[in-house]
Every structure is written in structure tokens, then in C-alpha cells.
Automatic annotation (TrEMBL):
<protein>
    <submittedName>
        <fullName>Outer membrane efflux protein</fullName>
    </submittedName>
</protein>
<keyword id="KW-1134">Transmembrane beta strand</keyword>
<keyword id="KW-0472">Membrane</keyword>
<keyword id="KW-0732">Signal</keyword>
<feature type="signal peptide">
    <location>
        <begin position="1"/>
        <end position="26"/>
    </location>
</feature>
<dbReference type="GO" id="GO:0009279">
    <property type="term" value="C:cell outer membrane"/>
</dbReference>
<keyword id="KW-0998">Cell outer membrane</keyword>
<dbReference type="GO" id="GO:0015562">
    <property type="term" value="F:efflux transmembrane transporter activity"/>
</dbReference>
<keyword id="KW-0812">Transmembrane</keyword>
<dbReference type="GO" id="GO:0015288">
    <property type="term" value="F:porin activity"/>
</dbReference>
<dbReference type="GO" id="GO:1990281">
    <property type="term" value="C:efflux pump complex"/>
</dbReference>
<dbReference type="InterPro" id="IPR051906">
    <property type="entry name" value="TolC-like"/>
</dbReference>
Length: 234
């Protein structure tokens, strides 16, 4: 009877330790800081402005135009002609003696090409399939664009969130270096302690610069899709 109780104690301890992990709370804070509404605005702006998406829209319009032309071309196998002939001496159509009385006035002709007519259904169906292909390509790119906007936004959000702690670490390292430097000048600390503080300050400064570059790069990458400054998207 004691084994189940012992198992419950271990499970409860593990659950307590899981809740006590600092990273779990930090991750939750990051996730709650993400605005889904703002992401939707970014996606809508990208769909409205990104040139590549407009290219797919033009392809759909072109395919629909070809379909309309294919439907109208049902009349192509049929042709109608007429010719006006005159017995007037001034007319350019000079009749012969034997045909003058017969060929004067208007003449009408009608022709029909069955081979061309039989090709029309396949041409119309092909045009319809081209419209579907263009629409599928547009829909696929819409999904890709949405995913890419989200991916770049998450990278931007991460780089922005890291600015504060990295800058705080830099300020701490800078203040510590200044204090240690004064103490070293007074011979209150060793050269090793001074070098350690100096190295920490240098590394913190490099991390600060890199974090700022990452932030600017992530912002530029996201604005490449929206074609607008993020400050203009509210």
C-alpha cells in the first residue's frame, strides 16, 4: 500500500519543479506579448502592397480573359462573306460580257469548318483549367505569404524583446568595469580582476551592438513584405 503513495509524492514533486522552472514563465510571457490582431494587420497590408501577389492577381485576370475569348470563339468555324459587283463602267469590278447580268449587285457566301468546331470544347476546357491553375497558384502564394509574415514578425518580436535585457546587461557590465577600473588604479584589485571586468564589458558591448543590428534587420525584413513602415501600421 505504501508504493502508490510514494509514487504520488514523486509525481507531485516533479510537477512542482516543472512549475518552478524560470524558462517556462519566461516563455509564457513572450507568447502573451504577441498580438494576433497586429499580425492580421501585417498580413492584410502585405497582401495589399506586396508586388509579387499582384503578379498572381494579374495572372488570374489574364486566364479569365483567355477563357472569355475561348467561349466567344465558338463563332470562328462559321464565316459569312458578301461582295458587291456592278455593271457600271466606272466600277473597279469590271464584269465580263457573259457574267455581267448574272454577277451584278450583292453576292453572299457562307462557309463552315467542322474541324475547327470540334476543337472548341477542348480549347474552352483548357482555358477553364488555366483559370483554376492561376487561382491555385494565387491561393498557395497567399498561404506562403501569410506564413512568411508571421515568421518574420516572430523574429522581429524576439529581437525587440531581447533589446532590454541585453542593454541592461551592458549597463551593468559598464558600471562594474568603471568601478573595477577605479579600484585597480588604487591598487585595490588585481590585474586579473581588472581584465575580467574589461572583457565582460567588451563582450556586453558587442552583444548590445549585435542585438541592435538583429532588431533593425528583422524590422527591415518584415517591412519588405508590408511595403510600409511598421510605425504606419496601427
Amino acid at each position: 500500500m505504501s508504493k502508490p503513495i510514494h509514487y504520488l509524492k514523486i509525481t507531485g514533486l516533479s510537477f512542482f519543479l516543472l512549475l518552478s522552472i524560470p524558462g517556462a514563465n519566461a516563455q509564457e510571457n513572450v507568447i502573451t506579448g504577441i498580438s494576433n490582431l497586429y499580425i492580421e494587420k501585417l498580413i492584410a497590408t502585405a497582401k495589399q502592397n506586396y508586388p509579387r501577389l499582384k503578379q498572381f492577381e494579374s495572372q488570374v485576370k489574364a486566364a479569365k480573359s483567355d477563357l472569355s475569348g475561348a467561349k466567344i470563339s465558338w463563332l470562328d468555324p462559321f464565316s459569312f462573306q458578301y461582295v458587291r459587283r456592278s455593271n457600271d463602267a466606272n466600277s473597279t469590278n469590271t464584269p465580263t460580257i457573259t457574267t455581267a447580268d448574272v454577277l451584278s449587285g450583292y453576292q453572299f457566301g457562307f462557309s463552315f469548318n467542322p474541324g475547327t468546331l470540334f476543337q472548341k470544347p477542348s480549347q474552352v476546357n483548357r482555358a477553364k483549367e488555366q483559370v483554376k491553375i492561376a487561382e491555385y497558384n494565387q491561393a498557395e502564394y497567399n498561404l506562403s505569404l501569410e506564413a512568411e509574415v508571421k515568421r518574420r514578425y516572430y523574429t522581429f518580436f524576439q529581437s525587440k524583446a531581447l533589446l532590454v535585457p541585453i542593454n541592461s546587461a551592458f549597463l551593468d557590465a559598464e558600471n562594474n568595469y568603471k568601478v573595477v577600473k577605479i579600484k585597480y588604479q588604487r591598487a585595490e584589485v588585481t590585474i586579473q580582476e581588472y581584465n575580467t571586468a574589461s572583457m565582460s564589458y567588451t563582450q556586453a558591448n558587442e552583444a548590445k551592438i549585435q542585438s541592435e543590428i538583429n532588431y533593425l534587420a528583422a524590422k527591415a525584413a518584415l517591412e519588405e513584405l508590408t511595403v510600409k513602415k511598421l510605425e504606419e501600421i496601427k
